[in-house]
Amino acid sequence: MAADLTALGATLPEPLPFDLPEDEAARWGALYVTEGSRLGGMMLARQVGEGMPRTYLESGFGAGEWRAFRHALDEAAGDAAWVDRAVTAADAVFALYGRAA
After folding, report:
1. What pLDDT is attached to residue 60?
2. Residue 93 CB neighbours (<10 A)
């Protein structure tokens, strides 16, 4: 992202505060959102005009990597309370992305 912003003549904004609970489920929930955003970025990169920086958006997955991530998440998942904590963390990361936008 820093390289793309530099290419546009912009600087990185100040980081937004974000606290994630020290919990494996919360880490998986946050990771689900950040890794999923890479998948979305690849789709968005196709719409970026020629000559515009898009390195950040193009940092997606290789063949099978998203599927492997989902499999690892399924393997790590625990009971309903674990899933609830993961979803709560995912919601918090989505909200962070919203504030950043």
Report:
1. 76
2. 20
